[in-house]
Design a protein that fits this description.
Helix content: 40-55%
Structural class: alpha/beta
Strand content: 5-15%
Largest sheet: 8 strands, mixed, barrel
Number of strands: 23
Strand order of the largest sheet: 13-14-16-17-18-19-20-21
């Protein structure tokens, strides 16, 4: 037997409960005890009379009470029937009570016509009405007519037989009164009517509460049988109360009392789900169809009995037989017409459903309980590529993919075990063999069908493929087809939670391509996409077969390196580090995109799995290591260390403190004078913001921006850092203009220089109208403002910045170039941008005395600036020798601790009141100049150069350089700004 046959051919579970069996056993014992007492005579005549009269009365009253209580508690269409059965039992109980009143209480025979006879006659009509209520109601007039004819056929046949056997003698008066004779005939006639209804209801009973109906029919049938025996003259003449005939009436009453509760539920009409019974149902249907013919046969037997006994055919028998034959003919005509109509309707429905089945695009299959296909619709040829005739007769299990067969059998077994009312259908999906040998994805809806199954199947292969493609797209990067962040995180979670969760060799590599943004900006985004595809291919080729490579987004990639289970941690680190180095080398090789060779590097962070670490923490550690690799110079591999997390926490704390400082006004603005190196006059002041920490230490922008991570060139967290830097720049510009305006109103008309990043001017982080509106708001002439450009990027186009600077120059604002001589960016900016002043980079100033090569470079840059007509200002001049050397090269202005450091507002005003600084005279010193040792001496006094911003400045000037007045402004050289300590975090 196949798997399908084992599933579909299982026997149903047995019904019934222990409680019902106990009740039935008790009922059997009571009825058996009463029958035994009746057979044995109850021990005395008096007790037999009492049990025969009042025992039957008690049983009938118990049935009346039971049916009445059930009718009060139940709901449904059968409720009136139980009220009728209660009334019928009450009549029987009253009749037996009257009978006992005469025989037991009064001790005299029961009269021939008494109240008991009328009570017994009233027993049958309520019972007949109750049985008709329980019968299945016909749906049309023909059904009602057939029910009436069937009842008459049964009643007529029984009347014919009974009249021929006994009733004809009873009908002859034989000296009895008319009332007694009428009563004698009424008993059997009512019993015949009751029997007819019992038989009709038995074959047409409703399906609701079947156990209770069957028990009630059995109880009434037993009562009618005892009445028929009592009607016989032989038994009636010899009948006495307490005889065995009473046991039948007693059992009938108790069965009727038990009938409402036979189903085990008293307050709900219900129907127990039943499995189909193919063996018993045809027999019941056959008996229902043969009932009219059996009734007519009984009628014929009654007539034949009279003829064989030589009796003349009685008029009652003749009339009854004729009506029975007429009823049979009428019924046959009705049934013939009904059959013709049903045949036509059946043919129409069959054609309709055949058209639906054959025209349906779904395949409809019927499987027998053995699992063999009995029917397959013609759609199989179009769906499966196999003819329906070829599939018919084959086993369904042989057509399903072996890997799917187990799950399908399990689902079908579960479906068949469930109640049909709760789960009428189920749905399965499996692979089905097609005609060319391929496997198709098939979705089937399953219904029950005579112990087998009906399968409505359709081909969903394309849908399954589309779902698989959508799933793949949801988990993979569309450009490189590598796993995306979601799938990579899932793989990391599997690696950490599987059998290798304690393997320390598992590691995550976080990879970022250095310089990728420059490729997008210079070659184009399409070339950048092609580079990413090539990088993904190199990444896949460099990792091992069991490892996972993924693209997390942008130019960030990742790799999951699975451990080998070895215990040596050092060997694991060496192996993973070697893989990371190979990846770095592979990703750093030149790329050929759109006919152009481009280069990028790779910064890789490595983090190893630890016991109990989560996927998010492991990926975060690798990300921190990669961030450290980029901060340390890029194009390198860094292993994660716990200190990296502490650094991140410290930077986050400092960033939070910096944001709070901007809001709470913890920043102050210092100014450092810019001095004419030939005259010592203060020609301008340079605004320098400082952050006053909780410890009272002032930090320069380079220091607190370095601590918080702002200004890093890797672009990580750039949005928030750029916004914070722009906010600081706006505050510095506004505060510098405000203080310069106040100084001007106090009589110190000196220009102020504000350093702004070139990127903020080009990206409009500082709106174009900001400078103009601030100057107008505070009443400061535009010629009193100098903007220093810093952080210029040679890779970015300068067109937007040039337009912005030209607009500022039209307002009268002077433009200075910071970091002149620090690289190609400064030279490119000097070539393209409208520059009025260049600031010599402090790296050139620091080494001008130690390196002859640097001395020549600095001198050349100064000559270039002078040839272009721009003034030059050196920053970071801390030694008198440096000042003397720069002045000898042609430098016109300087700032640094050789004069003074950054000053607060009070000290600045004192310096501006004095107006100039004494020019220090350096001691003779040997320096390396032009390859020979030369003595640096202060040059002779030259003519006075023009002011820094053009025109003379209203400051006090003194020709004496050694007076005590100047000594009051000369301060001890301060330490460099770069030496300011970093506050603890």
């Amino acid at each position: 037997m196949s798997a399908w046959a084992a599933v579909l051919a299982r026997p149903g579970a047995a019904d019934g409960g222990a409680g019902m069996m106990l009740h039935q056993l008790l009922l059997t014992l009571v009825c058996g005890g009463y029958a035994a007492g009746s057979v044995l005579g109850w021990g005395s005549r008096e007790l037999a009379t009492i049990m025969g009269d009042f025992g039957l009365c008690a049983a009938a009253l118990a049935a009346a009470v039971s049916c009445f209580v059930y009718a009060r508690s139940c709901s449904g269409p059968s409720r009136p029937a139980w009220y009728m059965f209660a009334a019928s039992s009450l009549m029987a109980g009253l009749g037996n009570g009257v009978w006992g009143w005469y025989e037991v209480v009064r001790g005299q025979p029961v009269p021939s016509v008494s109240l008991a006879d009328f009570c017994f006659l009233l027993f049958a009509p309520p019972a007949i009405v109750g049985l008709l209520v329980l019968a299945k109601r016909p749906v049309n007039r023909a059904g009602w007519l057939c029910l009436s004819l069937d009842s008459w056929l049964i009643a007529g046949s029984l009347l014919t037989l009974s009249w021929s056997l006994a009733l004809a003698h009873t009908a002859s008066f034989d000296g009895e009164s008319v009332a007694r004779t009428a009563l004698s005939l009424a008993y059997p006639l009512l019993d015949i009517a009751l029997v007819s209804v019992v038989l009709a209801v038995h074959f047409r009973r409703s399906s609701a509460n079947r156990s209770a109906v069957n028990t009630a029919i059995g109880a009434l049938a037993l009562t009618v049988l005892c009445d028929a025996l009592f009607t016989s003259p032989l038994l009636r003449q010899q009948y006495n109360s307490g005889q065995p005939l009473d046991a039948g009436w007693f059992a009938g009453s108790l069965l009727l009392a038990y009938a409402p509760w036979a189903s085990g539920r008293s307050n709900v009409e219900w129907e127990r789900p039943r499995r189909p019974q193919p063996a018993g149902r045809p027999i019941a249907n056959s008996l229902t169809a043969l009932t009219p013919y059996l009734a007519a046969s009984v009628c014929v037997l009654g007539i034949i009995y009279n003829v064989l006994n030589g009796r003349a055919v009685d008029q009652v028998v003749l009339f009854t037989g004729c009506t029975v034959v007429l009823a049979l003919v009428v019924r046959q005509a009705i049934m013939l017409m009904d059959n013709i109509t049903l045949t036509q309707e059946l043919a129409q429905k069959e054609n309709h459903f055949r058209s639906l089945v054959q025209g349906s695009s779904d395949v409809i299959m019927i499987a027998a309980p053995t699992g063999v296909l009995r029917y397959v619709s013609p759609a199989a040829s179009g769906v499966y590529g196999r003819d329906a005739e070829e599939l018919t007769g084959s086993e369904l299990a042989s057509l399903i993919h072996p890997e799917d067969l187990g799950s399908v059998v399990h689902e079908v077994r579960r479906f068949l075990a469930a109640a049909p009312s709760q789960e009428p259908t189920t749905r399965i999906e499996c692979r089905f063999r097609s005609g060319n040998g391929d496997w198709l994805n098939v979705e089937s809806t399953i219904n029950r069908h005579h112990g087998g199954l009906i399968l409505n199947s359709r081909d969903v292969t394309e849908r399954v493929r589309l779902q698989a493609q959508l799933q793949h797209n949801a988990e993979h990067d569309p450009l490189t087809d590598l796993p995306n962040r979601a799938l990579f995180t899932h793989r990391v979670r599997q690696a950490l939670g599987g059998r290798r969760r304690t393997d320390p060799g598992t590691a995550v590599l976080y990879i970022d391509l250095d310089g990728f943004k420059a490729v997008n900006d210079t070659v184009g985004h399409q070339a950048g996409d092609e580079l990413l595809v090539q990088a993904a291919r190199r990444l896949q080729e460099s990792v091992r077969a069991g490892d996972v490579a993924a693209r997390l987004g942008g130019d960030e990639f990742a790799a999951l390196i699975m451990g080998d289970g070895g215990p040596d941690q050092a060997a694991h680190e060496y192996r993973v580090h070697d893989i990371a180095e190979r990846l770095r080398i592979a990703l750093s090789r030149p790329y050929r995109v759109q006919g152009t060779e481009v280069r990028v590097a790779a910064s890789i962070g490595v983090a190893f799995a630890e016991p109990g670490i989560s996927p998010g923490d492991l990926m975060r550690n690798a990300d921190l290591a990669m961030y450290r690799a980029k901060s340390a110079g890029k194009n390198r591999v860094e292993l994660y260390a716990p200190q990296m997390q502490a650094d991140v926490a410290r930077r986050a704390e400092m960033a939070t403190r910096l944001r709070t400082a901007l809001k709470d006004g913890e920043f102050v603005l210092l100014h450092q004078p810019v001095v004419d190196v030939n005259s010592g006059r203060v020609t301008a002041v340079s605004a320098q913001p400082r952050w006053r920490s909780a410890q009272g230490i002032l930090f320069t922008p380079a220091e607190f921006l370095r601590v918080t991570g702002t200004g890093q060139s890797d672009g990580r967290g750039g949005g928030e850092d750029a916004a914070r830097s722009a906010e600081l720049s706006r505050w510095t510009l506004e505060e510098a203009i405000r203080q310069a305006a106040r100084r001007r109103r106090a009589g110190h008309s000196v220009a102020v220089s504000v350093r702004l990043p070139a990127s903020q001017l080009a990206d409009k982080a500082i709106p174009p109208k900001t400078v103009e509106s601030l100057l107008a708001e505070h009443g400061l002439p535009s010629g009193s403002l100098i903007i220093e450009l810093s952080e210029s990027d040679s890779r970015k186009p300068l067109e937007d910045l040039e337009h912005r600077l030209m607009a500022l120059r039209r307002l009268g604002v002077r433009i200075a170039l910071d970091g002149f001589g620090s690289g190609y960016a400064a030279i490119n900016a000097l070539r393209k941008l409208p520059i009025d002043l260049v600031k010599l980079d402090h790296s050139l100033v620091e080494g001008v005395l130690e390196s002859a090569r640097l001395y020549k470079i600095t001198a050349g840059l100064l000559r270039i600036a002078n040839d272009l007509g721009t003034q030059v200002m050196a920053e970071g001049v801390d030694l008198p020798e440096q000042l003397a050397a720069l002045r000898a090269m042609g430098c016109t202005h300087a700032q640094g601790t050789v004069f003074c450091g950054p000053l607060d507002e009070h000290r600045l005003r004192r310096a501006l009141t004095v107006g100039d600084y004494p020019l220090p005279r350096p001691e003779p010193r040997l320096t390396a100049r032009s390859g020979v040792l030369a003595e640096v001496r202060a040059p002779e006094q030259r003519s006075e150069p023009p002011a820094l911003v053009g025109g003379a400045m209203p400051v006090r000037y003194s020709g004496s350089h050694g007076t005590r007045r100047h000594e009051s402004l000369a301060h001890t050289p301060l330490r460099s700004n770069n030496e300011t300590p970093v506050p603890p975090t």
